[in-house]
Each structure stands twice: as C-alpha cells, then as structure tokens.
Amino acid sequence: MSDPTRGQRASSFGTRAAEYARHRPDYPRPAIEWGLSGATGTARRVLDLGAGTGKLTLGLTALGLDVTAVEPDPEMRAELERAVPSAKSLAGQAERIPLPDAAVDAVLVGQAFHWFDVPAALTEIGRVLRPGGVCVPMWNYEDESVPWVAGFTALGRDGTRRPTSIEDVRKVTHPAFEPFEIGRFRHAQRRTAESLVETIATYSKVIVAAPEESAALLGRLRRFLAGNPATADGEFDLPLVTTALRARRS
Q1: Cα–Cα nearest to 171, from 81, 245, 88, 62
Q2: Which of 181, 199, 179 is nearest to 189 (CA)?
Q3: Looking at residue 157, what is its pLDDT?
Q4: Which of 77, 101, 134, 208 is least surrounded by Cβ atoms within 10 Å, i.e. has the fewest?
Q5: Pairing of strands 236-248, 181-191
Q6: Taking a C-beta distance cutoff of 8 angstroms, is the pair 81, 109 a contact?
Q7: Taking Cα atoms as reference points, which of 202, 72, 43 lies closest to residue 136?
Q8: Lowest mean pLDDT, pick from 10-24, 70-84, 149-163
Q9: Buried b (16+ CB within 10 A) or exposed e, 181-220
Q10: Mean pLDDT over each residue of the chain, to the nearest integer
Q11: Are the C-beta atoms of residues 69 and 88 closer than 8 Å to each other?
C-alpha cells in the first residue's frame, strides 16, 4: 500500500467521522486518572486537544470535569457535539489554541499528538496551562503481545511504516515542561470480525489510499479473521494497550 503524505493523512478523518465515532475505542479510566494525577493540585478545568469525535472527551466528562474540546475538523467536531453535548466545543488547532493564558489545569490529547507540530504545540499547551498543570498525550494500540493480534496488525500494516514511536515522543523536551513520564494500561474493545475491519477502515492510511488498495487490504483482513478461531464467530475482545505520557508545566 502506498504511503501518502503526513498532511493528507492528518486531514483525512473527517470523511469517515461517523464511522470513527462508531468504531474507535474509548480510553480506560485508570489511564485518564493517572494522567490527571500528574498535575500539582486538583485538575478540574481540562482541555481535550485534537478531540476528534469525543472518544476521550466522554471519559473526561464522566469524571465530572469542566471540559473544553478543541478540534479543527468540522465533521469530527459535529460528531463530538452530538456525543458529548455537555462539553464546550471549539474550532481550533494545537498550534493556535482558542483559550486565554493559564485557562486550564490539564491538557489531554487522545490519538492526535503525533499529528501536531510538536514544538509549536507544546508552546501553546504551556501557554494555556496554569503552572503545575499537566500535558497528557495518550494512544490506544492493539496489544501485539497476543499472537493473533500481532499477525493481524502486521497484515494490516502492509508494508507501511510503523506508528510514531511513543518512546521517541517521550524524549521530546521543551523549556515549559518537566520530562515526560510514561504509563501503560490494559484495555479491550468488544468487536466482531466486521466491526474490527470497519475500525481499520477509519485509519488514515486506509482512508487516503486508492479505493482498490483499501478494498484489497480490508479483504485480506476479513479472510484472516474468518480463519482465526478467536475471531471467526460472534463477538470477541480486541486486546489493547493504552499508553499515556504526562509532563508537568514548570
């Protein structure tokens, strides 16, 4: 499968916003609480940055927090507003956050930090965070310690490069922040073979690929799942690992 530009992939999700909202996993509460606990004092005012369709926003509002969600794509933001009407929703980007200085206690980022211009984004995140506030990027990835999951993800990758290394992101430094800490949390999503394939169809590389390439890849994944005893019939748990980083505002 061809590997389109980063910009094409980053801006592709709105074309599958409804499917993204339906099929992408949420974030486990222990990961969210671990991230928030990195702040000095209580984190009550939080920003979900690059909020997409509100997968992380839902977890934040469930904790009773005062949540603002910032998302640049109007289709994704419309799904978020339907799913989480209690959150304040704003159009904006990580490099130009539409909030005043020191407006929030925590900035969380679900599955989006690697799309940012990270130095510029950290400068903006540092601006909107109060001193002692915390920046918490997090990602859900399939748990490749499970053999069938490793085979499935290798097939789905289909020669394209692996996702951005979280360890590389962890090494990023910025004068406004203390070093990143890392936490990993087991997670799972209830799936069927078809809904798992539909999940993969919301990945940027599949969205932007030529239709015949996407169809061929998804067909191979369906055949894999049909031939795998763990996934061939009915529902199953897709094992996930949620990896979170946290860095305190200096």
Answers
A1: 245
A2: 199
A3: 79
A4: 101
A5: antiparallel
A6: no
A7: 43
A8: 149-163
A9: bebebebebebebeebbbbbbbbbbbbbbeeeebeebbee
A10: 92
A11: yes
The tokens describing 9, both together, are: 């992939």
**Are 237 and 186 within 8 A, CB to CB?**
no
Structure tokens at 71: 């998302």
Residues with Cβ within 8 Å of residue 30, at least 6 apart in sequence: 185
Q: Is 230 helix (H, G, I), strand (E, B) or coil?
A: coil
Is residue 40 very low, low, confident or very high in pLDDT (cuts 50, 70, 90)? Answer: very high
Tokens representing 89 are 């929703």
Q: Which two tokens stand for residue 178?
A: 């203390």
Residue 29's φ and ψ, nearest 5 degrees, are -55, -40
Taking the alpha carbons at both ends of the chain, their separation in whole angstroms is 43
* Segment among 9-18, 28-37, 142-151 with least mean pLDDT: 9-18
- For residue 33, give the 3-state DSSP assignment: helix
